[in-house]
Specification:
Blueprint (H helix, E strand, L loop, with lengths): L4 H11 L14 H14 L1 E2 L9 E6 L7 H6 L3 E2 L2 E8 L10 E4 L7 H8 L5 E4 L11 E6 L2 E7 H6 L3 E2 L1 H6 L2 E3 L6
Parallel strand pairs: 2-4, 2-5, 5-6, 6-7, 8-10
Antiparallel strand pairs: 1-9, 3-4, 7-8
């Protein structure tokens, strides 16, 4: 069952909330929030049938900024009714090796080459590299005023044959592509 628009909004707002007073629970770190975004993105994107595997694979390409945070975030959770597998990669995955690919900042020098390697596949690309969405990535995560926000490149999402919830699109800070007027 997919959460409704109100549940999605609450999840994103909780993940992106500003600093809290010292007496409250410590504020999650930047990559804890970004891992929560990956989890929520996975729930609001529909992959084509041929992209389904025994497990739902999230791959981190390059220097891993998450550390153990991804495993903690996805521990005991299912995505599309499948167990989540976290992989760390040194080279771009093949077209069927992952559903979500987080491209770390260490890969900036070869970004064009990496995006070309997954072109035509149904790999959901995410990064916090500046200009990621403008250069052909699907989701760019940004920190502005201590809040994690995201940009979407709808043209790239469409090319990958992925379907994204309209509620998710409305929550984006910036939408790039022909569907930007939604």
């Amino acid at each position: 069952m997919r959460p409704g628009p109100v549940a999605l909004l609450l999840l994103v707002l909780l993940a992106a909330r500003p600093a809290t007073p010292a007496l409250e629970t410590p504020r999650p770190g930047e990559y804890e929030v970004k891992a929560a975004y990956l989890y929520n993105f996975a729930k609001f994107v529909k992959w084509p049938e041929e992209a389904h595997r025994a497990s739902f694979v999230i791959a981190v390409l390059g220097d891993d900024p998450f550390g153990p945070v991804l495993e903690r975030t996805f521990e005991g959770k299912l995505v599309l009714e499948r167990k989540v597998e976290i992989r760390r990669l040194e080279a771009a995955p093949g077209p069927n090796d992952a559903q979500i690919l987080f491209v770390s900042a260490s890969e900036r020098p070869r970004l064009g080459q990496l995006l070309k390697a997954v072109e035509g596949s149904s790999v959901w690309t995410v990064s916090d590299i500046e200009g990621f969405a403008e250069h052909g990535g699907m989701i760019a995560l940004r920190v502005r005023n201590d809040v994690v926000q995201f940009e979407i490149n709808l043209d790239q999402v469409e090319r990958a044959r992925l379907k994204m919830s309209s509620q998710l699109i409305r929550l984006a800070r910036t939408v790039i592509g022909k569907g930007a007027g939604l």
